Amino acid sequence: MKPFFTRSDTVWRRPTGCLHFYAFPSAQADIRRDFSAMAEALRPLAQLGEQPVEYLHMTMQMLDAYEEDLSDELWQRALADLGRTVATLPAFTVNFAAPSIEEYAVEAVGQPQAAWSDLVDTLQQVLTRHGLAHTLTAPPYGPHCTVAYCRSAVDDSEVERLLRPVATATSFRVDQVSLVAADQHPDEATYSFRVLESWPMSDV
Length: 204
Hints:
Layout: E1 18-23, H1 30-42, E2 48-50, E3 58-66, H2 73-86, E4 92-96, E5 100-101, E6 105-109, H3 114-129, E7 144-150, H4 156-163, E8 170-174, E9 176-185, E10 190-200
Antiparallel strand pairs: 1-3, 1-9, 2-7, 4-8, 5-6, 6-7, 9-10
Helix pairs in contact: 2-3
């Protein structure tokens, strides 16, 4: 595995307050328990940075924009529109395969589905409609959650030895969209975030 924060998409204009749209599980969701157990098994490897379970998330869209930008009226109109639009989209469940060793992180990859693609497309369309297309970055390759990011180079076999006995398929329900201000912690190879606003999806 290679250090996660050497990836080009981790080079932000600054490491704090970067706006993202996230989905994250409820406090009672099984995935939090499952990921905690798997992260605990990987702790002997100092080369990995455990993503704290309280910051477990799925990125739907990263933006080249920051918390202070939200004072602009353009953003206020876009977010109001986004809330109304998200409320029309049905909630859905993402089923994740057992986490696997990827090039830069230990990740659980979700099954592709139209509901996920529709949600990501909607976020992009609303921002574009309000003149904010310039803030959009490349969307994620698909639904995924990270157990641990690579802090320093480590042989895959060392990770596999600890991960294989505990790797568990899991899931969580996406029933809201949240705008967060995300912070990078490269020395720890983790992220944290502050929720700025959340919008519920439809249960119909």
